[in-house]
Design goal:
Layout lengths: L2 H8 L3 H9 L7 E2 L5 E2 L2 H15 L4 H7 L9 H37 L7 H16 L2
Antiparallel strand pairs: 1-2
Amino acid sequence: MNISELSKRSGLTTPTIRYYEQIKLLPKAKRKSNGYREYTDNDLKLLLLIQQAQQVGFSLADIKTFLPTDVMVWNHDELLGTMKDKITEIESLEQKLALSKQNLLMMIASINNKPDDITCEENAERLFNLYFSETSK
């Protein structure tokens, strides 16, 4: 298949496909006699695999380190280790996001529950002082 068909089937732009070739994520395409690139079904599978890996948080550099030159041959232990490491990263990020959410919800509640006898500016100062007195402990 040519690059236009590969682009259509993979959902990637032709410049992206060329870039993946350039950085050696995708093997260099064979050329037809007219100079056009010719791709295989394995190239399509590889592009789909790259997209899936990106969707779960792997960078192109990460993908390049664990992607075998032959898609049908994987280093089982290395691949599992890489995936487990990514799960650990995701769990850590989830904890940070949960803490951020909790802090935002507390701040919203503090803003919404300001004493009636103070202005918004005074409440902002009160919360600022409260926040920084708690974080410095």
